[in-house]
Write a sequence for this structure.
């Protein structure tokens, strides 16, 4: 009789799941900050500050 031992792939599955989770987190993080690279936030802030400054100038007159 020969004893054949089955391979245990449990830790390979766990390692694969951990690696997939890390890759997914980095992909989502890159997508989350994509809007900051367009400059739209800085432009919006500049417009808001300009309106606030104009309102203060008009109130002082």
């Amino acid at each position: 009789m020969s004893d054949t031992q089955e391979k245990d792939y449990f830790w390979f599955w766990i390692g694969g799941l951990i690696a997939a989770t890390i890759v997914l987190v980095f992909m989502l993080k890159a997508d989350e900050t994509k809007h900051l690279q367009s400059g739209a936030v800085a432009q919006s802030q500049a417009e808001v500050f300009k309106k606030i400054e104009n309102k203060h100038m008009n109130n002082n007159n």
